[in-house]
Every structure is written in structure tokens, then in C-alpha cells.
Amino acid sequence: MNEPAERSVAASRASVVRLMVPSDANFTGNVFGGQILAEVDRVAYITASRHAGATCVTASFDRVDFLEPVHVGDVVEFVAELTYVGRSSMEVAVEVDARPVSAGASRRVARAFVTMVAVGPDGRPVPVPPLRLGSDSERRRYEEGLRRTEERRRARSPR
Asked: What is the DSSP letter of 4?
């Protein structure tokens, strides 16, 4: 069986833009964190599926940091790119920025690392193409992603 051809980080990068509306709000009047997480999961899926050329499933949310509240009326952009690729798993970094719809500066409101796994029609993992790293920053993020992947494996291992 042939190895899949390498694919660049840029080839799978994805972004989603959403206007936050009153139905997205929690009891404090800010946007419910679950709404943000759902969009993070969706944009991570798009990025991973583009790279894999296959259906992907969420294996883990390694880390989610909510940095600032998101308000009703904010336009929120979710930008995702691969940081690490294994045999069938991929780590996707998602950065979330918000700005008021009318005007104002953009601010980073969240960031997350999501692990997605490519699966075949039978639901079992399938190999994904290697990640072609084109810059020093991509190589650095890949090494950081490899370390996080190894930490996740150690944490899952029975003691």
C-alpha cells in the first residue's frame, strides 16, 4: 500500500465566522462556553478532514482556555490549523478571536487543542498523510504537539 502524499499545514487550515446572538447567551448575559466549544469542534473537524481526506472524530479536547468573555453581538472567528499528525490522529490548534459587530478591536477570547482521529466506513482508525512543515514556527508547533501527544498517551496508560 502506498504512503499518502505529504500535505502542508496551509492546505487544511480552516476558519469559521459567527455572529453571537441572544440564544447563544448564558444566565450571565455572556455567550455560553458550550457554544464556543461546539464551534471549536466543528472547525477542528473541517481542518482534520481536509488533511485526512476522510471522516474524522473527536478523540479529546486537550486544553481549552477561555481568556475573555464573548458578548452577544460579537463577531467571533475560529481559526484552526494542524500542529501535529500521527498515524491516524491529528492535533488541531484553534484560536478564537472576537470583536463587536459595529466596530472595535479584535481580542483573543479562547484557544484550544483538539485531537481528531481519521476513521474509515467501519469506524476504525485509518492512516493520514504526513504533515509537511514549511517554516521554523510550524516545526516548533509540531514538536510541541508531539510532546502533548506523548503526555496524553502517558496519562491514558494504566499505572
From this structure: P
